[in-house]
Amino acid sequence: MSKKIKLGILGGGGDSLIGILHRVASSMFDKFEVVGGVFNPALEESEKFSEEIGINRDKIYKDLDHLIEEETKLPAEDRIEVVSILTPNFLHFPMAKKLLENGFHVICEKPMTTSYKEAKILEDTLNKAKTIFAVTYTYTGYPMIRQMKEMIAAGELGEIQKIDVQYYQGWINPIIHDEEQRNSIWRLDPEKGGISCCMGDIGTHALDMVEYVSGLQVEKLLADLNYVYSDNKMDVDGTVLLRFSEYVKGVIRTSQIATGEENNFTVKIYGKKAGLKWEQENPNYLYKLEDGQPMKVLKPGHPYNSAFSLDGTKLPPGHPEGIFDAMGNIYKGVAKAIKGEQYHPGEFPGIKDGVRGMNFIEKVVDSHAKGNVWVAMDK
């Protein structure tokens, strides 16, 4: 019986949605065991929370420095091996850098850092550490997104000619219109959230998804952002035109003020021969569109899907799989990498995805600030 990987978590205590998501996902394939961490800035709160979720207090620490100090004293077989960072954005970089420098594997929430410069430093740090690093662009873990990626790679769509991604939410709508609230939450504070709210939070999901499924990279972009109020320093809505090459174009449309929307993430890729469409709120349906043919609907778990899609499918056809399963597939891929097992290169987003995301955010903000002009992404 193989030993479970010892997982520590930073943040995600209390009723945090992201905390529950990571804990459930890490347990799915019996590869990880959550053994400790720093769930809350207050040690007493962390210890109380650890009792609530059934974790021994032995590995609950007052802060990251204390965790590293104590864990590195232990024999390798007793140490926390990988740490998931679920804190506000401004803590991602210093925490990830310190963990890598001390030999830990890292799973980091997005955006990876608050600046492109930090992302490049983190990439250099990882190259020296030679450990495993994953960024949780969760939606890449859905079986039908993996099927979409494989179908495009196999040429079923032909040459790609149009990409359209929409990510609409409405959660910030009541906050942005209340002056006190919009000036008090961390997501709209550049010191804690970085230079972008909407593009940093969900726009990077869209950018990563575009490049993940299509196999193409954005070369240039033009952005138009909306801040709604003059005293609000971070975007809450925006549209970005994309150029992958001279004749392959696309668009990313994101909003956190789309009133009534929940988590409307839609991905549409069109080629010369066919198109594919996927909607996150109905993730078990992948639609294939062809001229002169009836629309085809592909669903997970069937033998007509690729081996990569089937590897990420946990239930028989007709049984819905969702975001917990998608995140679980990312953790599964990380476990394979840590154990030195063979894995598909698309099983989890890595440092380069995080770096691309930060480059995207800064280029989008730069394009908007310069009067909505085309700017080039770094290669």
What's the SSE pattern? EHEHHEHEHEHEHHHHEEEEEEEHHHE
Q: CATH top level of the largest domain? A: Alpha Beta
Total count of strands: 14
Largest sheet: 9 strands, mixed
Rg is 21 Å
Q: What count of structural domains?
A: 2
Unreliable stretches: none
Determine the mean pLDDT. 96
Enter the CATH topology name of the largest domain. Dihydrodipicolinate Reductase, domain 2
Distance between the ends = 44 Å
Shape: globular
Domain Gfo/Idh/MocA-like oxidoreductase N-terminal: 19-137
Domain GFO/IDH/MocA-like oxidoreductase: 145-276
GO molecular function: nucleotide binding
Pfam families: GFO_IDH_MocA (PF01408), GFO_IDH_MocA_C3 (PF22725)
Give short descriptive properties of this protein.
379 residues; alpha/beta; Rossmann fold; Dihydrodipicolinate Reductase, domain 2; nine-stranded mixed beta sheet; five-stranded parallel beta sheet; 13 helices; 14 strands
Write up this protein.
- The chain is an alpha/beta fold.
- It has two domains: 5-138, NAD(P)-binding Rossmann-like Domain (Rossmann fold); 142-315 and 351-369, 2-Layer Sandwich (Dihydrodipicolinate Reductase, domain 2).
- It is 35% helix and 20% strand.
- It is built from 13 helices and 14 strands.
- The protein has helices at 17-27, 43-52, 64-71, 92-101, 116-129, 143-153, 173-176, 179-182, 190-193, 198-214, 307-311, 323-338, 351-369; strands spanning 5-10, 32-38, 82-85, 105-108, 133-135, 160-168, 220-226, 237-243, 249-255, 264-271, 275-279, 286-289, 296-298, 375-376.
- α1 (17-27) crosses α12 and α4 packs parallel to α5 (116-129).
- The longest helix has 19 residues, at 351-369.
- It is globular, with a radius of gyration of 21 Å.
- The mean pLDDT is 96.
- Residues 145-276 form the GFO/IDH/MocA-like oxidoreductase domain.
- InterPro entries: Gfo/Idh/MocA-like_OxRdtase_N, Gfo/Idh/MocA_oxidoreduct, GFO_IDH_MocA-like_dom, NAD(P)-bd_dom_sf.
